[in-house]
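thought: fold this chain, then report.
action: predict
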Amino acid sequence: MVLIRPFISSDNDALLNIEKMSPQGNEKLAMVADLSPDITIRYELYDNWEIMVAEEHEQIVGYVGWTVKNGPLKPYIYLIEVMIDPNFRRKGIGTQLIKEVEKCAKDINASYIYCYMYGPSEPSIKFMEKMGYIKEKEIIICEMSTSKKERIKAKYELEHINESDLPKAVELINQYYAGRAHFMPFTPKSFKDRVNKTLGYGLENFMVAKENGKIVACGGFWDTAVFAEMVYIKEPLMWRLISNVQGALRHLTHMTLVPKEGKYFKFRNIVNHAFKPGYEDAMVDIFEHCSSVMYETRCEFFGTYLDPADPLLEVLKGFRPHFEKEYIYAKPITGTLPDFSNFYVDCRDTIF
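observation:
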């Protein structure tokens, strides 16, 4: 018989072990995260979270974690992850854990539950669909390698943000994401608190681009390696071919790096980006600056998660990104689903 109970700190190592045994993907493309020694570190990005553990004969066999977010009218729930020990799958444990989240949602009168599903993870996607979750949105993961080539002189004034610039930067962010599902406008204080609370981020890593002293673009770079390093345990065939020719050609031309199968890599995420219409090149300046900084700090890969309709996607094509997909799945509980057609990606949700 399976016992579902709240997480306690002594469960930490068992949950980390299950995570390592549970790669995301399929036989052609799969990856796994080497998490921080404290599994709750990513949960602490949120104000209200919970983890429930599944135990069979005093052995931990799975867990589920979620957080409650405040919507404009009712709360809703982000299902962070559900993990089952591979030796205990197909025994209904995942179903029991998902029902725990749904029970919580009903108890607090949450409107709906949503989650991210990695595109190649077909078995997990089928499971969530079986549980009544519906694919509502595609999210693009843009992955780029850092560059050591000389940067062209920036067209705009690039600065780390200061207190006096914070209101205008927040105003730009609010304008950029206005009307998107899951976006709640920031105040200068709430934005500062959110950024400074986020481990590996902080306002010291938030950049603004100015023209004649006025902010026209902004974005932060977030060191997600403090939460986890990633490794592809199944690398796409095309990447393998690229890796084979890189050594011979790198001294002749700039080559885009690709993560090597079986080798852990660090990743930084560009977050809270925004720019005024017509200032796409200011965003390019910020990305080139971030790429240079990351190269100097030996972080070889960076990227961002985007709604396909986000105008930044077109800007980033010049960086020769590798694209992967995630999908947003959702299920109504005590209300209706929002319109996900125009979506704000909460960067906290993008940690594997």
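thought: worth noting. The CA atoms of residues 72 and 184 lie 8 Å apart.
final: tokens above.
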